[in-house]
Fold these 2 entries.
Entry 1:
Amino acid sequence: MVKTYIINVKKLEDDAVFEKAVESVSVYRKEKIALLKHRGDKNRSLGAALALNTALSEYGLCERKMEYALERYGKPFFPDHPDLHFSLSHSGDYAMCSLGEFRSGNDIECIRGMSESRARHLAGRFFAEEENAWIDRAGNYQEWEERLFRIWTMKESFLKVTGLGMSLSLKDFAVIVEDDESIRLRHAVNERTYYMKEYVLPGAYQEKDGYRLSVCSESPEFAPAVEIVAL
């Protein structure tokens, strides 16, 4: 099963909390954090590592002690634990981690207001015909924008699970949302079948609407809800 963990990184704005937390993560993650210019980005990167550590603890492992390596297109993995696969993402106040025994990719996005003209330009430029047709069936612009971000996070999740990242054109595959809200993927990347799961923020975070969370995996078995990581 692929489990997903989420953490609110607001507390990391406190210097003392940040410094204590950063000392608990791996050299690999410290180096990534050090390269980031903005404090918000550093907090989110650190939060992702903390979420990963919580996920690894269920396997008796610790993020600080893990060795990392990169696939051809930059997807990180654990060479000493090839049976474990993870994906990290962050946006706004949140960072998330998905971990399991099958390849996965995840994405979280904050639905940020953008002009309708720009939003429609992005959809037309990057989305497949089936995706745009589904988005355009929305009853109003608010629903249209929400559908756009749903597709965006699911497409990002697929890019991550394949390990191809942006080397794969966003128009070369499609996320198809059926009338019953079931989701399937049209792609020619390989002969594998991929599955998609969308999440909402858990109850403790319900005051924070406007976020979309998606996880894509080679396994259809997903945890029913995301788990909160305490900070």
Entry 2:
Amino acid sequence: MDVRNKIVMSQVMLPHQANVAGNVHGGEIMKFMDTAAGAIAMKYSKGNCVTARVDELQFHLPIFVGALVTCTAYIVYVGRTSMEILVDVEAEDLESNGGPEKALSACFTMVCMGKNGRPQQIGKVYEPETEDEKRLYQEALEKRNSIKR
């Protein structure tokens, strides 16, 4: 994965982000994922980007106060005005010897917006290089084609 097409963001989950049992609210994680997706989309397109769609979110494990949460956002497809961004989330209990565990992932569709408030063409063509990038690109292309029908 070309590091120019990826961004990694981490933060420790705090009490104000959780319920009384110490579970971090799903909306807090979704917001963090959206921030990571927006950051890589803006970095890639050099423009303001907004969220147009988020695929299904399925939490694989609870995230608790004190956990280090890391979002890794990857460009997987670039169209004329929009991009598909895969965001993987890992959670790590910093008080144990266990490493990070995958908590969830989702695909975000981000649209590049012009100063006029309308979608703006992305001037850069994305060309996947590795086998993994090519697979993700093909999956995103197939998904986009099935949505348009």
